[in-house]
Design goal:
- By secondary structure, the protein is mainly alpha-helical.
- It has five helices and three strands.
- The protein has a three-stranded antiparallel sheet with strand order 1-3-2.
- A hairpin with a 5-residue loop joins strand 2 and strand 3.
- Helix 3 packs across helix 5.
- The longest helix is centred in the last third of the chain and has 26 residues.
């Protein structure tokens, strides 16, 4: 049986990594941090922001609402205050399906 490398789970993620995964500038995440009280990253001794998985899920939802659905910041804020955990799960499913589609297209190109 071949060796499969297990991805390392982190407890905290730096802002650069979060921004890169979303394809946005770190300054946008810092801006959203001021606009949405739900996003409160820890800061290390050097003042660098560190985000938990829960905060990253919230940022992903904000990104989805604002950038893909076209919500205003006020509309996204209102949606988050009414939002249920089901909405966050829906975002995860969409992301997983997008990654699966990308993998399948790459596999198709190899054939």
């Amino acid at each position: 049986m071949p060796y499969k490398e297990k991805p390392i789970e982190r407890k905290y993620y730096p802002i650069g990594m979060v921004a890169k995964d979303l394809g946005v500038a770190p300054s946008l995440i810092r801006f959203w941090e001021k606009q949405f009280p739900e996003i409160k990253p820890k800061k290390n001794k050097n003042g660098k922001r560190l985000y938990t998985k829960k905060e990253i899920e919230r940022i992903n939802l904000i990104h989805y609402l604002v950038k893909e659905k076209g919500y205003t910041l006020g509309g996204a804020r209102a949606h988050l205050s009414e939002s249920s955990p089901i909405e966050g799960n829906r975002i995860k499913v969409i992301e997983n399906l997008t990654e699966l589609k990308k993998s399948l297209l790459e596999l198709k190109d190899k054939l």
